[in-house]
Write a structure and sequence with these properties.
By secondary structure, the chain is an alpha/beta fold. The chain has 4 helices and 8 strands. Strand 1 and strand 2 form a beta hairpin. About 10% of the residues have low confidence. Bound molecules: copper (II) ion. The site of copper (II) ion (CU) has 7 residues, from loops. Keywords: Copper, Electron transport, Metal-binding, Periplasm, Signal, Transport.
Length: about 160
């Protein structure tokens, strides 16, 4: 009996699609905005993204005046501190598991920060909670970070 080899590529594609986690199928993308969809000024949207270990995220300079820069001491141990240029898109590949806190250098004082959660947040969540009060973040950024960390812990 002759086998129908034409079906094999379809079966292979189906296999890949069913074994890939849902969050890896969409490109992780953060927009840098003057005004967020909820009316808040100078925001990263969404302010928390989750990516698989080894996956990338794009920071899109949709409005002028922003950048995305990792905050020293508030990223996983041994992780590369990413640093974008103002008004430029940035693509970052995340090799180390854990939570990355980043800010916009121009609006850090206004609390323009965001989180990238790579794999399991618990890899360094306790470290960040212990260290962020002593970090270079502004008071408004610390206050926002507290809220964001709560959302990470509750999965919101
Ligand atoms: Cu900004």
């Amino acid at each position: 009996m002759k086998k129908n080899y034409d079906l094999y590529p379809i079966l292979i594609l189906f296999g890949v699609a069913t074994t890939t986690p849902a969050y890896a199928e969409e490109a992780a993308e953060v927009r840098m905005l003057n005004v967020g969809s909820d009316g808040e000024a100078t925001v990263f949207e969404p302010d928390i993204i989750r990516v698989a270990q080894g996956a990338s995220a794009d920071f899109i300079a949709e409005d002028f005046g922003h950048d995305a820069v990792a905050v020293a001491g508030l990223i996983p141990a041994g992780a590369e501190k990413f640093e974008g240029y103002k008004n430029a898109d940035l693509s970052v590949t995340f090799e180390k598991e854990g939570v990355y806190v980043y800010e916009c250098t121009s609006h850090a004082g206004a609390g323009m920060i965001g989180l990238v959660v790579v794999g399991d947040a618990n890899a360094n969540l306790a470290d960040i909670e212990r260290q962020y009060q002593a970090s270079s973040l502004s008071d408004r950024a610390k206050s926002k970070l507290q809220t964001l960390l709560e959302r990470v812990k509750t999965g919101a």
